Amino acid sequence: MLRSPNPPLSAVVSAVLLGVMLAASPGASPAGESAESSRAPDGDPAHAADAAALDAEIESLKREVLALNRDLFMLEEELLYPASTQVAVFVSMDVGTFFALDAVTVRINDREVAHHLYTEREADALLRGGVHRIWTGNLRAGEHELVAVFTGTGPHGREYRRGAELNFEKGVGTRYMELKISDRARRLQPEFIVREWE
User: Quick one: which of 54, 67, 127, 183 has the fewest CB in 10 Å?
Assistant: First the structure.
């Protein structure tokens, strides 16, 4: 099952909360402008105390909004991807001497579920040990086939396109799959492995 084409709940709520934060900011609205124009001279201690209290209140609201946004994101993940049916697919690289990654396409049960074009910065992060979650979704229990297609530049600067596949059984609980790119030094060729994390 894929994500709904509608925007995620957390994105909608984030937009609303951002509007609330901007409206609460002293300089973000006409009311804020009128407050600015009616302020007392800077030397007034009462004015300084009011401004400090307002700044502290705004910072407190921002922290609460960020915490609420995080909680909503986690709730959305739990609702969209229950642990009993969740499958997550990650991309990793080891060394990368014989292959420069451009893109990865993931197909599950002969249906494309993810495609990602990697920037130079993202590919460099993978080479330094980073891991990219390329897809998260739901699969029913039973047999499934995962096929990954890797596109990039191979040995001698030639365009390179290779695939790897894995047949796996989805039971109860979350499954994690790794698409690993490594070097096969003896053959001077890259190697592409799809495996399930234990």
Answer: 67
Q: Do residues 34 and 129 share a domain?
A: no
With contact defined as beta carbons under 8 Å apart, do 103 and 116 qualify? yes
Torsion over CA of 9, 13, 18 and 19, rounded to 10 degrees?
Answer: 120
State both tokens at 114. 């993810």
pLDDT tens profile 3-48: 444 455 555 555 555 565 555 555 544 444 444 444 445 567 777 8
One-letter identity of residue 78: E
Within 8 A by CB and 6+ apart from 177, the residues are 87, 88, 89, 90, 146, 166, 168, 194, 195, 196, 197
Number of structural domains (the chain) is 2
* pTM for this prediction: 0.59
Q: Which helix (H) or strand (E) holds 198?
A: none
Specify whether 132 is located in the same domain as 177.
Answer: yes
What's the CA angle centered on 97, arms 96 and 98, to 5 degrees? 95
Distance between CA 70 and CA 14 in Å, rounded? 10
Q: Which domain holds residue 42?
A: 9-80
d(CA 134, CA 116): 7
**Spatial separation of the C-alpha atoms in residues 80 and 2, rounded to whole Å:** 9
Residues 6+ apart with CB under 8 A from 123: 93, 96, 100, 101
In a domain, 123, yes or no: yes
Structure tokens at 142: 């039973």
